[in-house]
Amino acid sequence: MSAREWLDKDFYAELGVSSTASADEIKKAYRKLARENHPDANPGNARAEAKFKAVSEAYGVLSDSDKRKQYDEARKLFGSGGFGGGQGGFGGFGGPGGGFDLGDLFGGAQGGSGGLGDLFGGLFGNRRPGPTTANRPRRGADVETEVRIDFAEAVRGATVPLRLSSPVSCPTCHGSGAKPGTRPRACATCSGSGLVTRNQGAFAFSEPCPDCRGRGQLIDDPCPDCRGEGVSTRSRTLTVRIPAGVSDGQRIRLAGQGEPGRQGATAGDLYVVVHVSSHRVFGRSGDDLTITVPVTFPELALGTTLTVPTLDGKVSLKVPAGTGSGRTFRVRGKGVGKKDGSSGDLLVTLQVAVPSKLDEKAAEALADYAKATADHDPRRDLNELLGR
């Protein structure tokens, strides 16, 4: 469709809104008209189908802020009459002696640039790319892989081997795609740009060159190993350093270890997603390790010294008499390693273990204890608060 035909359209009128309508008003009007004229709701109704296409076309321009701005600027420039030949239009300029060339106005008929063809190219999605867009150096794609480590490795840090099968720059041709001793040549069809341009009225359409497939180069003698692609797939083993304190799901970036770049550009990065297996004894809270240690009632009531396991061995923990069940003690420096070389702590929570069964002797001892402490009511404060 030519620019003349585009500007003869009044997209605001198609949607039944003013030129100052907000984005929400435009969306609301479009939805209403699209619903009313949808082909599914009007089978066999050619008029409704044409209206549906028209409002969809109008909404496609007016819903895009950039396209709407360019459309409004074009309408101001040419007047609301467009090219139709009415007052304010351009019909009179095309007659004999008018001396007005519409192709000169749009700057595209001669393959030029800088005219209104650039404006309409942006409006209708046909802006001509630069001459080196297709074959410019392009950074390689990033690659992601996964690795699983155990709980202790996450706390202390570890070095793990990682085997990958991924694209790499061909070692035979060093990424050029040409047989060693030869080199690619510039494509004559696109002059090395990778793009060919064809004009259609006021518009210029650019597309990948069919001869070089958008590369801008032709390879007469392809590399026998990569068949001219410049990239080959091979298996490689990397040694990955997992830092101390890594958490489950954390991504580690290895710069330059992703896919190779194009035209000599830098390679992408490799991201390693770390999965940490759980531990049957220890948990984790930030930089601290956690552990729950079962104890007996006498140990809490009378006090004791416990031997508590850590990831590095064992430590002694003094429990004062009268300690309540659920109390947490902090053992310094026995937690997760930090970046500064220090470590978090080990949080030890004591929990009374209640026997599921008691023999007769133990039951009698507990009965005697209950009698001896009958005056002590552990729920006295609670009952007072409840007014009982």
From TrEMBL:
One of its GO terms (molecular function) is ATP binding. One of its GO terms (biological process) is protein refolding. The keyword Ribosomal protein does not apply. A zinc finger (CR-type) spans 157-235. GO terms for cellular component: cytoplasm. CXXCXGXG motif repeats lie at residues 170-177, 187-194, 209-216, 223-230. Its main location: cytoplasm. It is found in: Cytoplasm. It comes from the Bacteria. Residues 120-141 are annotated as: Disordered. Keywords: Chaperone, Cytoplasm, DNA replication, Metal-binding, Repeat, Stress response, Zinc, Zinc-finger. Zn(2+) 1 binds at C170, C173, C223, C226. Binds 2 Zn(2+) ions per monomer. Transmembrane segments: none annotated. CDD domains: DnaJ (cd06257), DnaJ_C (cd10747), DnaJ_zf (cd10719). Residues 10-75 form the J domain. Residues 157-235 form the CR-type domain. Its cofactor is Zn(2+). The keyword Protein biosynthesis does not apply. The J domain is necessary and sufficient to stimulate DnaK ATPase activity. Zinc center 1 plays an important role in the autonomous, DnaK-independent chaperone activity of DnaJ. Zinc center 2 is essential for interaction with DnaK and for DnaJ activity. Belongs to the DnaJ family. Homodimer. Participates actively in the response to hyperosmotic and heat shock by preventing the aggregation of stress-denatured proteins and by disaggregating proteins, also in an autonomous, DnaK-independent fashion. Unfolded proteins bind initially to DnaJ; upon interaction with the DnaJ-bound protein, DnaK hydrolyzes its bound ATP, resulting in the formation of a stable complex. GrpE releases ADP from DnaK; ATP binding to DnaK triggers the release of the substrate protein, thus completing the reaction cycle. This is Chaperone protein DnaJ.
